[in-house]
Structure formats: C-alpha cells, structure tokens
Amino acid sequence: MAGTRGTEARRAAVLGSPIAHSLSPALHRAAYRELGLAHWSYDRFDVDEAGLPGFLDGLDASWAGLSLTMPLKRAVIPLLDGITGTAASVEAVNTVVIGADGRRTGDNTDIPGMIAALGERGVEKVDSAAILGAGATASSALAALSRICTGPVTAYVRSAERAAEMRGWGERLGVDLRTADWSAAPAAFDAPLVVATTPAGTTDALAASVPGRPGTLFDVLYEPWPTPLAAAWSRGGGAIVSGLDLLVHQAVLQVERMTGLSPAPLRAMRAAGTAALHPAD
What we know:
Elements: E1 10-16, H1 24-35, E2 40-46, H2 52-57, E3 63-68, E4 82-83, H3 85-90, E5 95-98, E6 104-107, H4 110-120, E7 129-132, H5 136-148, E8 153-157, H6 160-173, E9 177-181, E10 193-196, E11 216-219, H7 228-235, E12 239-241, H8 243-259, H9 266-277
C-alpha cells in the first residue's frame, strides 16, 4: 500500500495536455531512486478533460497517486472522493493521492510549494507584494501570499473580467487585493516581492523597466530560462526564485504524500530537473 516500502509494484504519473514537456517524471523517478523504491514507476500521459473520467476509471490497485497539470486542475474535482482545504481554497487540484481503499483525495502542493521555494531564498514575510497575471497560477500565488504577506497585494491584469476574478479570490482568501491595468505593470517592481505568473514572452517587454535595486522576483517559468525579466532582475542585483524551484518543491510534497516517506530528497530531485532541462551535448 502507499506509504510502505513493500515489494509490490506501485504506479504514479502526471496527466495533462500537452504533457511531453513535463519534468515531473525526472523529478519523481529521482526521488524513488534515492528512497530505494525500485518497485515504483512514474510515467506521463496526455489526457484532456474529456478523457479524464475514463482514465481514472481504468486505474487499478497498483496506483498510488497522480500529478495534474493544465487543463485538469479544476476538471478533476467532481471525480474525486474529497479534497483538502488547501485545494478547496483555490478550487484547484494538482495532486491526487489514492489510498489503499481506492479513495481519491485531491490536494494542492503548488501553494505550500511556493511558500517553501520562497523560504529557501530567505523570503518568509513581506509587507506588500505584486502579481503579474490573473490565471490559475495567480490564484495559487495569492493563496501563498495570504500566508506570508502582511499588507496589500496588487495584481496587474489585462481585462476588467480578470480584475473582478482576482478581487473575488482576494475576498475569499482574506487578502487586501488591489488590481491595476497591465499598462501600469512596471509599478509592480516597487514591491519587495513580485510574482510573475504569465505565459512565456508576456513579461519580456517589462525587462527594460526593472529598477536598479529590485527586491525578489518569483518567475514561475522554467523554460526558457532565464526569462528576459529574470535576467534583467539578476543584473540589477535582485533575488530570483525560478519556476524550477517551484516545480521541485511542489514535487517534493507530492512524493511525500504519495509514498508516505519523508523527507523527500530535494537535492537529488533538483539535480534531476536541472539535468533534464540542460542535457549534456
């Protein structure tokens, strides 16, 4: 059963669409090697919303858990037996733990993963913060900030609809959330912590606006890396938390929840992720 070393084969996987780019197999397999779980396997499957119910129905007793990426983080919720409070807070599940009785419990390791990644860089409390973007990752970032930010959070967004969504999340999470138009995004860089949650290329034009002595930038992208924004931030002497940092920390929590073994091998998982991103020629 999950949580024991045992001898029977155990399975886990990451699901999403597209999924070929996922680094999760490299991270989880590295963890299994370090933990001595030779009978555990971790794969990837291209599964969209329409195919998710059938995939879940086809799981047998060997399955211990699933990692989920887009577009499945909300679609999976009605298919589960329950979700944790952390997942419920943002209505997003990135982890499914399958018990010995077959019960499927949804969790969200992105939120504590963000907090852990920031803490590793010495960011444990801030008095204000800014978020670039308003998608699903932004709501998880806001949930993380609700635990470490003592003052206002400003989200820079592209539409009134997105602004309303973010204000709704702010109310739900108990955050003093303010919104501003994307055209004012350079003002975000006055905050001690900036979380960039947008797709690749979106923040490139903002690189020229990075101040001389910036605070901390948490850019959730990991490929390509560094982003122009992260590169400019680093040149200005600011601290950087990368998408790989987030990916590793949330995967550490997934491994611990699925296997029942703790602590998961952070250093080995990060090394595996770095090697997968930059394979030797």
